[in-house]
Amino acid sequence: MRMIYKTYLVIGIGLMLFGAVIHRSNAGVLVGDRSRNQVQPAAEWQRYTVSGEEFSVLLPVAPAMNTSDMYIDERSKRRERMLGAYSNGVVYAVYTFEKKSLSLNDLIRRFTSNNELIRQTEPVTVNGITGTSSRFETDDRMGAIQLFATAQNLYVFQVVGSKLVNSPAGIPKFLSSIRFSKQPEGNKVTDGAGDQPTSNPETAQVNPSIFPGKDVTRKVSVITKPEPRYTEEARKNQITGTVVLRAVFSSSGAVTNIHPVSNLPDGLTDRAIWAARQIRFIPAIKDGRFVSMWIELQYNFNLF
């Protein structure tokens, strides 16, 4: 009986140890799965739209957005919007315009006629909305522009990518995701800086230096640059002039280290800094890598 008891005791301890090992193993798998779900190697594209607009589109990150009023005359104005997102060497932009004293041909001339890089232009239709599509390509970058006119609004979708990374994959994904409807679905975007770009290990530089423009192979290419809006106090006090900022256009695609060189009162310097954070660009290139570069920005405030 004593031997049988000892045998059962050994077997019981063995089963307990085996169960503990299995539990720890399973716990490791669960933690590993959870970690992989939390850390995504690539951006997850989501659909975005804006309240009151007729479009939606897929983007890899939440875009910056700036809404402004363009005065047509003393009695009327036109709403204009600029959305911009950056991810892994590609800038995605959406421009919207109220259809007031502005036509699709006006936008075609503005966005394509003076662009010597345009290689091909053809008609395009999305959800019954007709427009035009243009593509371009150079030795180091490629992209496309699509323009549409609805009954109330005009839309421009622009995408520009560096060949330093696998940009072609994002270009057709962005353009093929354009949708039009009276009540588009998607994450609602509001005015603001959006998701700030972060470093990508595939394009991160080895040397963390910040270079002047003369020392890089290819300078920064700014795609979207919203203009700052007046504050009510500055408008009331008839403040005019120029805010000059010095900033780093980083290899990650973010505008950082923003320092005023010259200021204006009544909140205009802050408005300029806010607009600078919304800039979306393709970083400078040196020795086959994206690098950070110093840039001086000027914002003119004029009362009309």
Instruction: Give the uncertain stretches in residue-range form.
Output: 1-41, 200-206
> Would you give the CATH topology of the largest domain?
Protein Transport Mog1p, Chain A
Main sheet record? 7 strands, antiparallel
The gross shape turns out to be globular
Number of domains: 2
Mean pLDDT: 83
CATH superfamily membership of the largest domain, which one?
A: Mog1/PsbP, alpha/beta/alpha sandwich
Relative helix content: 10-25%
Write the layout of secondary structure elements.
Elements: H1 2-38, E1 46-49, E2 55-59, E3 64-71, E4 77-87, E5 90-98, H2 104-113, E6 118-126, E7 129-137, E8 141-149, E9 153-162, H3 170-176, E10 179-180, E11 187-188, E12 210-211, E13 221-224, H4 232-236, E14 241-249, E15 255-262, H5 268-276, E16 280-282, E17 284-286, E18 289-301
Description:
The strands form four sheets. This protein has a seven-stranded antiparallel sheet, sandwiched between helices. Strands 12, 14, 15, 17 and 18 form a five-stranded mixed sheet that branches. Strands 10-2-1-11 form a four-stranded mixed sheet. Helices cover 22% and strands 39% of the residues. The protein is globular. Strand 6 and strand 7 (129-137) form a beta hairpin. The chain has two domains: 46-188, 3-Layer(aba) Sandwich (Protein Transport Mog1p, Chain A), CATH 3.40.1000.10; 210-301, TonB (TolA/TonB C-terminal domain, 2-Layer Sandwich), CATH 3.30.2420.10. The protein contains five helices and 18 strands.
Features:
alpha+beta, Protein Transport Mog1p, Chain A, TolA/TonB C-terminal domain, 7-stranded antiparallel β-sheet, 5-stranded mixed β-sheet, 18 strands, 22% helix
